[in-house]
Design brief:
Elements (H helix, E strand, L loop, with lengths): L1 E2 L2 E2 L8 H6 L23 E3 L8 H9 L5 E2 L8 H6 L13 E4 L2 E4 L1 H11 L7 H27 L4 H11 L14 H10 L13 H13 L6 H7 L1 H11 L2 H7 L15
Parallel strand pairs: 3-4
Antiparallel strand pairs: 1-2, 3-5, 5-6
Length: about 270
């Protein structure tokens, strides 16, 4: 069956890994996990600039869920002057993007949007405990994103700034420093505690995986820290590659809909 562009699989696997390893079910490896919780008569709409930025984890989640949505980045992005003119109105509640329109609801703030998508498409854990763990990962990666944003926009990826960033947030010597809770060793520990699962929480894909995939992806880019990431965190690099192979994400990542520009200043 199909609801709002999301296919409902007949697979009875309880483990996403089990479906992923089955050739007969490979094309629908994530669908059985993503039955929508509600149905709306209109396509959801993501409004964001024509860059990856803070819109990308939301796109990844929607793509993973096979959601039929529209994305303003594919039709020119956002009129900045109009956004600021309408700041505080229902169309731009905080005068910023991303904004997500879902039926009669207009939702702002990237993390609120991602959590909504997670709840709507059953990507928010299988229990209260897992939902809490997903929240923990999302908040941890938000701290990462803020540090990365400073490196990108304030410090403009200067070599001195990159060395300081790596010392505090990537190299083992930074684990016990005052680093605002931002270090890849912490994310590695969380991933390893989830045992043999290919996901960061539980045994099925969640919005935490979308955020973790994206923050790793940002750091292994050529202009960032590819050598350091592969040297110190091969498990995170392998995790990212596994998530990238999920059928729906693989199709998106290999498509023209995946934007080339990562950040607004084209750095990183």
């Amino acid at each position: 069956a199909e609801y709002m562009g999301v296919r409902e699989s007949s697979c009875n696997c309880t483990s996403a890994m089990g479906c992923f390893q089955s050739s007969s079910a490979n094309s629908d490896a994530t669908q059985q996990l993503l039955a929508p919780t509600q149905m709306f008569s209109e396509k959801p709409q993501l409004i964001y600039f024509a860059i990856r930025g803070r819109g990308e984890p939301i796109r990844l989640a929607l793509e993973c869920a096979a959601c039929d949505y529209t994305d303003s980045s594919q039709t020119g992005g956002v009129d900045y002057a109009e956004m600021k003119q309408k700041a505080g109105l229902s169309s731009f509640p905080f005068g910023q993007v991303p904004v997500f329109v879902d039926g009669e609801m207009t939702l702002a703030q990237s993390n609120a949007i991602l959590r909504h998508v997670g709840r709507r498409f059953n990507m928010y854990g299988s229990s209260l405990l897992e939902s809490a763990q997903i929240d923990m990962v999302l908040d941890a990666i938000e701290a990462f994103r803020q540090a990365y944003t400073r490196l990108c926009y304030q410090e403009k990826f200067s070599e001195d700034a990159k060395r300081a960033y790596a010392a505090l947030h990537i190299l083992p010597s930074g684990v016990n420093q005052r680093n605002d809770g931002v270090h890849f060793a912490y994310l590695t520990n969380i991933l390893e505690k989830n045992g043999r699962s290919m996901f960061v929480v539980g045994t099925k894909v969640s919005v935490a995986d979308m955020q973790l995939f994206d923050i790793i992806d940002l750091h292994i880019r050529h202009a960032a820290f590819p050598e350091l990431m592969r040297q110190h965190y091969p498990n995170l690099v392998a995790y990212r590659e596994g998530i990238a192979r999920l059928p729906n994400l693989a199709r998106y990542l290999g498509s023209s809909r995946r934007l080339e520009q990562v950040n607004g200043n084209n750095l990183g």
